[in-house]
């Protein structure tokens, strides 16, 4: 019989348990084991049933169980401890308060905060608004900013559907399904105004079409995360779909999402500042180019207040930080300029109806690629942010080359894009078993705050073996369950799946490989020589097993083909007990899979992996790195702590794959496998554990998100805050700078280095340790000395006679008008020297910023 009506019955939380809601609503519980355990102990079955989601769990606990918990003194005491711990965490001064002066040295009374924009945030599986690496990095960034006390507010989108869940069909082809995100079940609350109603902001699309945007708030420790949602009754059907899902639609859809994130985001930050009574952010950090429109919105606002376009851009740039995340041009968001022009919707005087007061063509010019009609979000990022960075040292260098055209006249090393190497949130990614070892060795201190982890060298072979065995066993158990479930979904019968209960060996060398399946990550490199791989897996004495996971973007056909190829290999009866593909890779699976792998394998096409972070998570758990010299491993690789797959210097990709695969097999067979199975007289893996200790001591402290956030604070946030504060403190600065810039641009054609000489050499020869004098005559074309920087560029010569690793030595103007500097020659070799002039002004952060240079 079908019911005529339905009602939802939810349990009412007894007053004594009300603090559970407070704990559930602050996502700090996600990185506090005691708090997760507390929730679990309310009702372990329901907790597991709802995917360990405290918000979804509370209404589903039976009244009897709730009453029992409310009378249970020991439960109540644990709950009170957790509440006390949370409040102390929120209220006590932390690293930022101890090390950064009030006002960040900006002269302002209170510390200005940072607004952090990202298209995705991977904080917990219970808030499914992420797809992979970029989102998890953003989540880890917020967690560490909270731990360190960095004043921050974050902005993202609340998608109606989470990223897709992955399953396989019989043939191993990826299937996608979407789960609906019900705000009631999510750890979010409406951001309420003074009247108690949920706050909304709006943007106006062409034709006067208003899109209302509701603001939700998730709390990540100390950091509020504002999530924007267009699924409102007041919106038309199309507008409601803007925040439907992450990376789901076509270009049109993506532009709309980015307009909501950027423009709606700035408006939401302002609404939040007003109701929360917190200082307005002065630094805007764009995590990837998706939120670039926030810069245009801020330019529009300054223009409404009376600034010219140039003045507004200068001021917005000062306080904006842009992080680029892809070294692959195809990974960058690019739109048809006309499409965007349509949305910006110019009125008769050329001003935007979407962003009031913004001149449409001038704004578009910031992002339109040279000579084309393509609007490039990364280019907008570099133009709207005075400070920018890649996410590992190598990625910084690759980005400088990739975007050199934006800074004409400057060599690649001087392109003003720096780097901050990514990191991972230690507490999130360290398994409980490993965390216990770390605490035992280092004491109950905030380990992330320390850069010296040498105490971990005291961990014994025995302790490490025990922990690694536990973690590997957990992985094997998860893999068995997942493989069985996957086969049931693929249409196999329960009765034919007994074999899944015995796949993998809890004592065998276990290699993990899990990440987004995009072509450059080369999931199938290990299949280059299938027979050789089979032999490695099937070795009776020294077996190797591989556990693999990863999703392919729904529209990425080649990615799905790779995945199918791998799944089919793993389906083979001869190897299925040694190689397993686990569908639906996600944060929760990642924590078990990465922690349980003895070796974390990473073989992208160098240098296409910007950083990669899963290998860092392995390091925290005593896993060893086996990687191409790319991303973060390129700057940290160390033979005492892992193995590096050499990069083949051939152009043909097929040939290169073959060579690198050969190297991969070779290192695996001749170095990794023997070391893993080598035992000393006591049966201990002495050599292996020595390597594990070395990895923990030397690599781990450098790959934490705490290190990363501290780097952002010192290298980018504080300089940006000071630069932005200079504009607020001195309202005339924007105007003065802009007219100075116009003068310099007008005068520049007449600026030149008319002669340059080296004195103190003997026919171009000099002895090591001697000094030479550089003398130059410089024409300033009407500019004054203070307007320019005259420098000698000195450095060793490359084969093509270019100066590499240039040193810059300023020249001083003498009485007679000549410019002079003394240059020491500490090293032997061929040294090149030239003199050049660049503009100089306190507002400029980099010499290349205006793209003006005059050289000898
Ligand atoms: C860490 C992580 C990633 C990112 O891995 P990369 O090594 O950067 O490719 C992706 N997905 C999940 C679920 C993760 O935990």
TrEMBL record:
<keyword id="KW-0328">Glycosyltransferase</keyword>
<dbReference type="Pfam" id="PF11897">
    <property type="entry name" value="DUF3417"/>
</dbReference>
<keyword id="KW-0663">Pyridoxal phosphate</keyword>
<keyword id="KW-0021">Allosteric enzyme</keyword>
<dbReference type="GO" id="GO:0004645">
    <property type="term" value="F:1,4-alpha-oligoglucan phosphorylase activity"/>
</dbReference>
<feature type="domain" description="DUF3417">
    <location>
        <begin position="13"/>
        <end position="127"/>
    </location>
</feature>
<dbReference type="InterPro" id="IPR000811">
    <property type="entry name" value="Glyco_trans_35"/>
</dbReference>
<dbReference type="InterPro" id="IPR011834">
    <property type="entry name" value="Agluc_phsphrylas"/>
</dbReference>
<dbReference type="InterPro" id="IPR024517">
    <property type="entry name" value="Glycogen_phosphorylase_DUF3417"/>
</dbReference>
<protein>
    <recommendedName>
        <fullName>glycogen phosphorylase</fullName>
        <ecNumber>2.4.1.1</ecNumber>
    </recommendedName>
</protein>
<keyword id="KW-0808">Transferase</keyword>
<comment type="function">
    <text>Phosphorylase is an important allosteric enzyme in carbohydrate metabolism. Enzymes from different sources differ in their regulatory mechanisms and in their natural substrates. However, all known phosphorylases share catalytic and structural properties.</text>
</comment>
<keyword id="KW-0119">Carbohydrate metabolism</keyword>
<dbReference type="InterPro" id="IPR035090">
    <property type="entry name" value="Pyridoxal_P_attach_site"/>
</dbReference>
<comment type="similarity">
    <text>Belongs to the glycogen phosphorylase family.</text>
</comment>
<dbReference type="InterPro" id="IPR052182">
    <property type="entry name" value="Glycogen/Maltodextrin_Phosph"/>
</dbReference>
<dbReference type="Pfam" id="PF00343">
    <property type="entry name" value="Phosphorylase"/>
</dbReference>
């Amino acid at each position: 019989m079908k019911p005529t009506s339905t009602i939802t019955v939810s349990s009412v939380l007894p007053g004594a348990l009300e603090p559970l809601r407070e704990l559930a609503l602050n996502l700090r519980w996600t990185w506090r084991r005691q708090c997760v355990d507390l929730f679990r102990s309310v009702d372990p079955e329901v907790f597991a049933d709802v995917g360990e989601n405290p918000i979804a769990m509370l209404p589903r606990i039976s009244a009897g169980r709730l009453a029992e918990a409310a009378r249970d003194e020991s439960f109540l005491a644990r709950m009170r401890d957790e509440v006390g711990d949370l409040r102390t965490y929120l209220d006590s001064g932390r690293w930022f308060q101890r090390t950064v002066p009030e006002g960040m040295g900006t002269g302002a009374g209170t510390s200005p905060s940072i607004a952090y924009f990202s298209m995705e945030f991977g904080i917990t599986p219970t808030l499914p608004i992420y797809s992979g690496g970029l989102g998890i990095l953003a989540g880890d960034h917020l967690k560490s900013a909270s731990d360190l006390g960095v004043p921050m507010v974050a902005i993202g989108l609340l998608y109606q559907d989470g990223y897709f869940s992955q399953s396989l069909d019989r043939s191993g082809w990826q299937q996608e399904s979407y789960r609906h995100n019900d705000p009631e079940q999510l750890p979010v609350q409406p951001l309420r105004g003074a009247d108690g109603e949920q706050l909304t902001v709006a943007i106006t699309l062409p034709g006067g079409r208003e899109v209302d945007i509701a603001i939700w708030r998730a709390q990540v420790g100390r950091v509020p995360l504002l999530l924007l949602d267009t699924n409102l009754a007041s919106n038309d059907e199309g507008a409601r779909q803007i925040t439907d899902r992450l990376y789901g639609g076509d270009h049109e859809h993506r532009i709309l999402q980015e307009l909501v994130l950027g423009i709606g985001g700035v408006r939401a930050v302002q609404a939040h500042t007003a109701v929360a009574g917190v200082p307005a952010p002065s630094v805007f950090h764009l995590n990837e180019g998706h939120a670039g429109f926030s810069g245009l919105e801020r330019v529009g606002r300054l223009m409404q207040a009376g600034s010219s376009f140039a003045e507004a851009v200068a001021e917005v740039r000062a306080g904006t930080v842009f992080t680029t995340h892809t070294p692959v041009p195809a990974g960058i968001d690019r739109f048809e300029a006309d499409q965007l022009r349509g949305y910006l919707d110019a009125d008769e005087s050329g001003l935007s109806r979407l962003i009031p007061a913004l001149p449409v063509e001038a704004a578009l010019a910031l992002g339109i690629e040279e000579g084309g009609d393509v609007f490039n979000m990364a280019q907008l990022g570099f133009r709207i942010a005075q400070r920018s960075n890649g996410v590992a040292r190598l990625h910084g260098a690759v980005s400088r080359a990739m975007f050199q055209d934006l800074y004409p006249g400057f060599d690649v090393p001087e392109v003003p894009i720096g780097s901050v190497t990514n990191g991972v949130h230690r507490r999130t990614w360290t398994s409980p078993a490993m965390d216990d070892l770390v605490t035992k060795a280092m004491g109950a201190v905030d380990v992330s705050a320390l850069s010296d982890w040498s105490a971990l060298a005291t961990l014994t072979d025995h302790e490490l073996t025990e922990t690694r065995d536990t973690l590997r066993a957990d992985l094997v158990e998860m893999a068995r369950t997942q493989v069985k479930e996957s086969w049931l979904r693929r249409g196999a019968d329960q009765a034919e799946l007994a074999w899944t209960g015995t796949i993998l060996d809890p004592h065998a060398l276990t290699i993990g490989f899990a990440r987004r399946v995009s072509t450059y990550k080369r999931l199938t490199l290990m299949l280059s020589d299938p027979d050789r791989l089979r032999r490695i897996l099937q070795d009776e004495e020294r077996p190797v097993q591989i556990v693999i996971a990863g999703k392919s973007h729904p529209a990425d056909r080649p990615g799905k083909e790779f995945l199918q190829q791998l799944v089919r290999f793993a389906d083979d009866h001869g190897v299925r007990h040694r190689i397993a593909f686990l569908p639906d890779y996600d944060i929760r699976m990642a924590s078990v899979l990465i922690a349980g792998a003895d070796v974390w394998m990473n073989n992208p096409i160098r240098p296409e992996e910007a950083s990669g972070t899963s290998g860092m998570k392995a390091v925290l758990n005593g896993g060893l790195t086996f990687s191409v010299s790319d991303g973060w491993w390129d700057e940290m690789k160390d033979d005492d702590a892992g193995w590096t797959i050499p990069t083949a210097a051939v152009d043909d990709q097929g040939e290169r794959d073959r060579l690198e695969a050969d190297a991969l097999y070779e290192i695996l067979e001749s170095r990794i496998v023997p070391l893993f199975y080598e035992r000393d007289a006591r049966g201990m893996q002495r050599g292996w554990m020595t390597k594990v200790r070395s990895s923990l001591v030397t690599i781990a402290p450098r790959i934490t998100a705490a290190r990363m956030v501290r780097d952002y604070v010192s290298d980018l946030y504080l300089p940006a805050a000071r630069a932005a504060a200079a504009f607020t403190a001195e309202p005339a600065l924007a105007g003065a700078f802009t007219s100075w810039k116009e003068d310099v641009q007008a005068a520049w054609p007449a600026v030149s280095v008319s002669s340059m000489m080296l004195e103190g050499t003997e026919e171009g020869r000099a002895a090591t340790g001697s000094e030479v004098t550089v003398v130059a005559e410089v024409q300033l074309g009407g500019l004054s000395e203070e307007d320019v920087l005259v420098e000698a560029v000195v450095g060793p010569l490359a084969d093509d006679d270019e100066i590499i690793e240039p040193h810059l030595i300023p020249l001083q103007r003498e009485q007679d008008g000549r410019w002079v500097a003394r240059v020491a020659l500490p090293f032997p070799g061929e040294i090149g020297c030239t003199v050049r002039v660049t503009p100089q002004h306190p507002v400029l952060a980099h010499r290349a910023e205006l793209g003006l240079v005059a050289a000898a």
